[in-house]
């Protein structure tokens, strides 16, 4: 079946779903919500991130837009990575799903909301701040390059009770990073029961085989307490969808026993795709121990480990790069080599706390959270020419570590007043947060000079974290907040939030938020908010530096191996090329929308918004050429010919619209059907660009530091809009769920060659999952089969197939680079 036929079927599906949605007038009178099964009816005793600290009976009653995602919806996506699952369900979530390369694809990018970056979305676990990754995204992803977000792949999906997505600026409520919104992951609370699930699958192109086992167990604690344990573990083969290397490989004259020509090199078809996931396991616990009727202790935590093995660019012995000119290289690798990056991530977090009181008398919540993330890089098929034939081929490239301690005391109480229609809810609290970032050097063989050093025949090749990069930086953050919320008059709810924080490295900041919600009638409400926000630079953005040898495209269009240095922002070297000490991002956020519930099981929401960000933090282009050589001439940095650094040169504006529609149909003898539709549109614009000034007083145009490609990553590299249509049909033991997505067109600009500018066509993707409850055979057994990207949809081929004509699909492609993924799942409840 060809692509045209696929699109025809998908568009027909949209028509059918639209027709079904129009049947809301057929909803029957007995369509009352079942509060025991519908997670949207859970009160705010456990729903934290709805933008309100009062008891709210459903997400639709919240004063700000919030989505609630169930664990079954997550599983039905066929994904066990929380980030990927959310990207398939929510139209507001963006996530690059076409990673490539040994290192860049091994560091999981975080999810982003409303077209911004992952570090502008705050992640919470049970309402408490989650620490971020020790590393940031290096690849040129839309809106993601340079962002150090939280790694959700390290949280077992089996532990999730539900996920709440607040789509609104919330820095005044929750602090730094909440510019675009908040994602709160609520963990299961069970005192009995258990589940065990296995899923296996792979891509129909023949790779990416995956095996995953997961489960949870609920245990009873004294005084009606509970302890829920959860885990997942698995592995995944590498995935690749690339073209043959277009370089001409010549005979290796230095070793007659290994002669080859351009047609028979063993590495003509080297891989450049998603790396192999050798092992991954995630663990979690969630405990609640009541002490009295109004006091309890609680604790929860996670531990995650992931190890990936990914291939990088093939280096033939006939290459003109400095490293391959070495006769020792050709002796060790007579047919060339494929450097391999082995990345290990270890992550843990634990929270302990206590609660007491009631909302009428005053509730106190005191807590402490500690989180730690470590990213270790190992080199395989390595080589340092200055060590000759004795050069080790496997060695460490160093560690990046991030630690965070977050403590606080929250107090909330309802006060009855005669001048307000409802009690006044006052919430206040104080916090202290400590953060630390460390770089630890790798094996000295990666960056030191051996006894065979020769600047021509055996140059020294730097890689990884050197002894010059070793550092430890930290910050202290103190803060306090005050929230007030009440119904001013009947049907008019108002909330005011104010938060002040002091950073040991960035001074003080105070931000506020105003929310209003007016119920015009029981079925129709309007809501709006205005807020200010901020985001302090992550410590990784402040302290990261490293040497590496990268293959980059010069201004002449030729790809070369160059010595690249990521400079510490504000360092002496960075100042020579226009770098300055980083400043915090500052934002203003405006939102207005409505909620319409025409029937008991039908709801529509529409929200429009604008987010202005000043001093946006971004990682510069890889800058090379005369700008770098002239700036570094005669200095200790003259051996560096390619640099990048973080900066605040751009201001941006994001405008958007989000629409949701939900409808449940009782089909009587034909079962039940749930329909969900979501549509998100956003437009990012650079509103101001500041030129840089070097420490010598030279002015450098911002276009040289943030070039055409970097700007397109902000303005056009993500689809302008995204449509999601989800359906769940069930009848007796059978269930069928589908997720249909449409990604709008998107554009990538090339820094040096406008011919390679490309606008990619819209793309439709359909997922399907069919389930069968086999209780008649084994009670609690359920079987599922499914397909992600059922019709094998692919993005447009990229014009820029560099390096070496290998890349088939852009790294910015929203999804589909590896085609259809099929799976089977067995689940057992006991």
Q: What would you say this structure looks like, in words?
A:
The chain is mainly beta and 830 residues long. It has one domain (3-829): TonB-dependent receptor, beta-barrel domain (Maltoporin, Chain A), CATH 2.40.170. It is 9% helix and 46% strand. It is built from 11 helices and 37 strands. The strands form 6 sheets. It has a 22-stranded antiparallel β-barrel. It has a 5-stranded mixed β-sheet with strand order 1-6-7-4-5. The longest helix is centred in the N-terminal third of the chain and has 19 residues, at 3-21. The two termini are 43 Å apart.
Please tell me what the overall shape is: globular
What's the mean pLDDT score?
86
Overall tally of domains: 1
Low-confidence stretches: 1-49
The computed structural class is: mainly beta
What's the alpha carbon Rg, rounded to whole Å?
Answer: 27 Å
Straight-line N-to-C gap: 43 Å
Assembly type of the chains comes to single chain
> Might you state the CATH topology name?
Maltoporin, Chain A
**Count of individual helical segments:** 11
Name the helicity range: under 10%
- CATH architecture tag: Beta Barrel
Give a short account of the largest sheet. Answer: 22 strands, antiparallel, barrel
CATH homologous superfamily caption: TonB-dependent receptor, beta-barrel domain
What is the β-strand count? 37
What is the CATH domain class? Mainly Beta
Strand fraction = over 45%
